[in-house]
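Message: Just now I want nothing more than another pair of eyes on a protein record. I am handing you a single protein, as its sequence and its fold in token form. As I understand it, each token names a local backbone shape. Take your time, and here it is.
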Amino acid sequence: MPDALKINAINCFYGNVQVLRDLSIDLRKGEVLCLLGRNGAGKTTTLKAVMGLVKVRGGSIMLGDTDLARLAPHEVPKAGVAYVPQGRRLFSDLTVAENIEIGLMARGKGRAVRDEVLDLFPVLRQRLGQRSGTLSGGEQQMLAMARALCIEPAILLLDEPTEGLMPAMIARIRETVAELRRRGVSTILVEQRVDAVLPVADRVAFIENGRNRRTLDVEELRADPDAIHRYVGVG
């Protein structure tokens, strides 16, 4: 299966502190790849590097023939990469409809895309006039995902989308990721909760000290559960 995104030996720093060290990851077309690792391992930095929010020193991030590492941050969504950061980052004083409209503007999408996105999250249709800051945590996560999907991305980056959510809402987010996979969207998912990942991921990459230590198919991981303990520290 061809790669949708190829991260090749990138190095990233915060000031003088190196966070990513020759990190390489390949995301296949139409798959869900989960990044697992301890806090501070470099998972979120990897997503920020793809989005141009952290400068890449050396290496490349290839989306087809385009090296995303050479693009300005505002150009990366236009190339077809959507990002849902940890904490959602909604415009809390704006309505649900206004947040979605901002998402549509990124690539000049219109009503057809808006309707398609709202079909994925029917509850948001009932909340269009509501200020996003007054939504429940689960509804805010849905809105953050909906806004990202307004660019019709080829690649979706999700940073801890189930954090703080009730089990029923976690299941709903998982269903959405699975539906996007069926539609051909390739997803990198950062999670701390192993139980939230295994039902939806195709492969898991273990990030440790800024490196990709090992990438396993989910079936391999189920056969070797000790890998989770070795790299993440949970059983």
